[in-house]
Write a structure and sequence with these properties.
6-stranded mixed beta sheet; 4 helices; 20% helix; disordered C terminus
């Protein structure tokens, strides 16, 4: 019984002692002061202890988390800790508080500070035109660019007026370009863009500030011509291209994609100057085009898109194999032809020999004179029969005296 009373008295004494040494709650400050930041920004949260507790260890808590998310010791003689949250993301949004553990060995933390809030916004994209004048010729080209100020998987949407005209998903490209070729008056109007962040949760940005596209009516865009019109290049070789236009301003070379609104710019050069693509590979196969900047009424605008140039990449080993195969086929054909000629000559020689032998045999058995021919006839034949045999005619037995036996 006494032991129980002793424990209760000691517990009350410790509790009272803890209250006496309970540290004052800290102050908490967030910067920026609004607590509203864009994804990717940095937020500084400052926790300030009572002046009589320098060198304390500070703990930063996010409401809803059972454990402290950061811990930091103040330098000796100081009673302030600054927690920097860099590259803020959506999951950093929420309310925060802090507390500290005095450095003088008190086995307890201070009270919780008041709370501050952090709100994470998606930054608004920026829309620009290329050329930046936002003016285009009829039949020319204009490029609309939507720049996104974060590094995350996104889907970008382009609007003309209230109508969405295009969308594309990009993994990490900060600027998405939309190429409008063969511009007409229908393309004139206000353009805006926005985007969706795809992870960790889908979030939509605000619209960009709108910008107007102007089409210079009645002025046709001059044509650019790409040389050559097609090219066959061995893998690992070089490709040379020339964009010709009535201008002294730069020309731009593009690899056309399957998407008519997007193109990959691969080179830039002056008009009528040849550019090179080195070490061509199979991934370079496809169609290429160019366009040039031209000056019209003091404005820089794009010419019309050039004719497409088809690039075909050839594997050198296949070329060598085909050449050797062709050579083998040619050698085989030549051997067969020579064999046929020799065989034909032999047949002709054999035929000629056969004719000669046949003539020699005929000459041996032919009668040497007319008397030998006459002697070969039957002397008992009558003169008329002998005459018929000379003429090669059969005798007329009906006129002969020979009588057939009766009954035949």
């Amino acid at each position: 019984m006494l032991s129980a009373v002793f424990i209760l008295l000691m517990g009350g004494l410790l509790l009272e002692n803890g209250r006496a040494h309970d540290a004052e709650k800290p102050d908490i400050i967030v910067g920026p002061s609004s607590g509203v930041v864009n994804i990717g920004d940095t937020v500084n949260i400052t926790c300030i202890a009572a002046i009589k507790y320098p060198g304390s260890t500070f703990l930063l808590h996010k409401i809803g988390n059972p454990e402290a998310i950061r811990q930091q010791k103040a330098p000796d003689g100081y009673y302030v800790a600054i927690f920097s949250l860099t590259r803020i993301q959506h999951n950093d949004e929420g309310r925060y508080t802090c507390q500290y553990l005095p450095a003088d060995g008190f086995p307890f933390n201070s009270s919780w500070s008041s709370t501050i809030s952090i709100t994470v916004k998606v930054p608004k994209p920026t829309l620009t035109f290329d050329p930046d004048s936002g003016k285009a010729l009829e039949g020319g080209v204009i490029i609309v660019k939507c720049e996104v100020h974060i590094d995350a998987p996104i889907t970008v949407y382009l609007f003309s007026g209230r109508k969405m005209i295009y969308n594309v998903t990009s993994e990490s490209t900060p600027t998405v370009s939309f190429t409008i070729a063969h511009v007409t008056s229908k393309n004139e109007g206000m353009y805006r863009c926005l985007y969706d962040i795809l992870s960790p949760k889908r979030t939509r940005s605000e619209h960009s500030d709108p910008k107007r596209l102007y089409v210079l009516a009645g002025i046709k865009a001059p044509l650019s011509i790409l040389h050559p019109s097609s090219a066959d290049v061995i893998k690992g070789g070089n490709l040379s291209m020339t964009c010709t236009a009535a201008t002294k301003h730069p020309c731009f070379f593009y690899e056309n994609t399957h998407d008519p609104y997007t193109n990959f710019q691969l080179a830039q050069g002056k008009s009528n100057v040849t550019v090179f693509i080195t070490n061509v590979g199979f991934c370079d196969e496809g169609n290429y085009s160019c366009q040039c900047l031209v000056e019209v009424n003091g404005l820089m605008v794009y010419s019309a898109r050039s004719n497409p140039m088809l690039l075909t990449v050839i594997d050198y080993s296949e070329v060598t194999f085909e050449a050797s195969t062709t050579g083998t086929h040619c050698n085989l054909a030549l051997a067969i032809s020579l064999g046929c000629v020799v065989f034909t000559v032999l047949i002709l020689i054999c035929a000629a020999l056969g004719v000669c032998l046949s003539k020699r045999k005929t000459a041996k058995i032919q009668p040497s004179s007319a008397s030998e021919t006459f002697d070969s006839m039957n002397p008992s034949d009558s003169p008329e029969q002998q005459q018929q045999q000379k003429l090669g005619q059969k005798p007329d037995w009906t006129d002969s005296c020979m009588e057939f036996p009766e009954g035949i």
